[in-house]
């Protein structure tokens, strides 16, 4: 899913020269979108991903940071909203149900009651499972207060595990890197061996204001 590239040969003559100079220019063919907030003439906004649906959480600066850190196979593709508390209500069961037919990576975005934004990228859609799933592409991230990304440490493979009453990400003999309850109302975040992360929110325990899950189409 890496954006395609093509090479263009440009020939031109320098002043006083009878032989042409040849320059090879690589052009990246990438899907582009207008800015979330400003005019369509800026170079930076051309690089933002296409959001097929409206986001209650994501702003332009969130998109700029996240798009540079998601795996190459997901870059250059539109983002589609799979689940949101604003649209589907606050239920972990509904979140799982919305992803039942998806076989692509997903990006979770959380806004808590302190207006802090953080979340996780999962190589696999969230589901109920009797075992941990996911790959080393999975990571946690936070904008609280500045953007940080926490990738797989290699210590263990406790990437994601889904229960009917909770969703867990990261672990290793202690608290989870990210934990959400069945009502998607309360959550917690602690340092864990899987990602060697710091807590994603300002407080270990937080209240969810909005939650969205996006995939790449």
Automatic annotation (TrEMBL):
Which InterPro entries does the protein's record reference? Answer: TLDc_dom (IPR006571)
Q: Does the keyword GTP-binding apply?
A: no
Chain ranges of the TLDc domain: 56-217
Q: What is this protein called?
A: Nuclear receptor coactivator 7
Key words, A-Z: Receptor
What is the native source organism of this protein?
A: Anabarilius grahami (Kanglang fish)
Q: Does the keyword Endoplasmic reticulum apply?
A: no
Q: How is this protein annotated for GO cellular component?
A: nucleus
């Amino acid at each position: 899913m890496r954006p395609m590239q093509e090479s263009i040969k440009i020939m031109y003559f320098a002043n006083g020269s009878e032989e042409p100079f040849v320059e090879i220019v690589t052009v990246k063919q990438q899907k582009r979108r207008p800015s979330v907030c400003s005019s369509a003439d800026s170079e930076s906004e051309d690089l933002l991903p296409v959001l097929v649906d409206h986001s209650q959480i994501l702003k332009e600066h969130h998109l700029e940071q996240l798009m540079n850190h998601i795996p190459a196979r997901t870059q250059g593709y539109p983002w589609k909203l799979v689940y949101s508390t604003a649209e589907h209500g606050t239920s972990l069961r509904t979140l799982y149900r919305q992803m039942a037919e998806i076989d692509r990576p997903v990006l979770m975005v959380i806004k808590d009651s302190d207006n802090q934004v953080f979340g996780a990228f999962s190589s696999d859609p969230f589901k109920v499972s009797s075992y941990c799933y996911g790959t080393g592409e999975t990571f946690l991230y936070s904008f609280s207060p500045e953007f940080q990304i926490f990738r797989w440490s290699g210590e263990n493979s406790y990437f994601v595990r889904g229960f009917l009453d909770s969703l867990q990400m990261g672990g290793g003999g202690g608290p989870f890197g990210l934990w959400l309850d069945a009502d998607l109302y309360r959550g917690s975040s602690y340092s864990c061996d899987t990602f060697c992360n710091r807590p994603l929110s300002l407080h270990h325990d937080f209240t969810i204001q909005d939650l969205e899950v996006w995939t790449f189409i």
